[in-house]
Amino acid sequence: MDRDLFIETAVEREWLARFDENQQWIKTSAKQADKESRLNHELIDWLLEHGYNRLSLPAARGGFGCDIKSVILLQEVLASYDESTALAIGWHLGIVGEVFGGNLWSAEMMEQFTEDIVNGGIANRVVSEAETGSPTRGGKPATHAVRHEDGWLLNGVKTYVSMSHRLTHYIVGTFVEEKEAMCFFYVPAHTAGAEIVETWNVMGMRATASHDLILTDVFVPDRYLVEVSRRRQGNAWLMHIPSVYLGIAQGAHDDAVHFAVAHSPNSIQGVIADLPHIEMKLGEMELKLMTARHFLYHAAQLTSENNLGPTFSAAKYIVVNYAQEIVDIAMRIMGAKSLEQDGVTERRYRSVRAGLHNPPMDDAVIRLLAEQAKNQLS
Fold first, then answer.
1. Any coiled-coil ranges, and where (predicted)?
2. Closest-CA residue to 46 (of 96, 85, 93, 97)
3. Buried b (16+ CB within 10 A) or exposed e, 315-346
């Protein structure tokens, strides 16, 4: 597998071996969590026990110090076993990498964040709202924060709060009239007035448990206002999203290959993998996987360069769309067998669709690339 070309560090090898040794129970627990539309608590507990939430935390702060390439590699493998848990915890890993890599918060709050993560904390940015749609579209959030004594009172409703019940902290996006800016507040999940309401009832990524968060007069001290009107720029850590869909595609590919080399109906000699039209499909899957993986990993290796926002967005677009095609081809190879709920391929089919609705959206990526093309001539 060409993924092996990108294995470089001891941390990567350690986690890959750990995943391989535990893959059977991970797959079993993932299936049950999807069936019940709940978080895979068994897997989350195991990941926290081994410090997976510290992957992108700098080594000097007690983490593994993984860069975006290492995170992508491990997330891809985890997603091939349990895509929902990988996507849900990936938001946390990306935020940690972004905050510490960009030195985004005050020294006091960076220390607080470090302490919380080392103690098993998981955080997620909560930005989406039903009224605004995707946060990348620029809608003004209805969630608001107003001054109150030596801090702020937050009120509003947030949607798509992945890992909902297991989050220890919410990084809440609000529009603050006083500052005329989009701001983010660091909110401990146990804060009075913060409540998760179970609304997640979807076809795919069911075990992300991306329920709603209701904020009712949630008070946070002034120091918990961690970001004010931060300029939006290319964020390489968002490539944790396509890594999950690459993992789904790799899993579907493996399902189909295993099926094709073993299935021998009595209407043919040998196995279906030897049939020309099946060989074509296997080759098409392999080519799409290679193309998507090399683009994504190469983009990750360019993160030190400037102005690569379009490249990061293109990586998401290419991987997610190729993943849709790979899963479809895999199911054509497997036929009706791929629809059986006793297997995992039908879950991959349901979950891979979610990638189209993770930011950035396809149309936004194409417009961004069009602008880049026009600017090159100006």
1. none
2. 85
3. bbbbbbbbbbebbbbbbebbeebbeeeeebbe
Listing DSSP states for 307-375 in one string gives: S-HHHHHHHHHHHHHHHHHHHHHHHHHHGGGGG-TTSSHHHHHHHHGGGGGSSSPHHHHHHHHHHHHHH
Alpha carbon distances (Å) from 363 to 127, 238, 252, 257, 314 = 20, 17, 26, 33, 11
**In terms of CATH, what superfamily is 2-118?**
Acyl-CoA dehydrogenase/oxidase, N-terminal domain (1.10.540.10)
Summarize pLDDT for 161-197 with one digit per residue, the tens: 999 999 999 999 998 988 888 999 999 999 999 999 9
CA distance 124 to 331: 34
pLDDT digits (tens, 9 = 90+) for 27-49: 999 999 999 999 999 999 999 99
What are the sequence ranges of the domains in the chain?
2-118, 123-228, 236-373
Q: What is the CATH number of domain 236-373?
A: 1.20.140.10
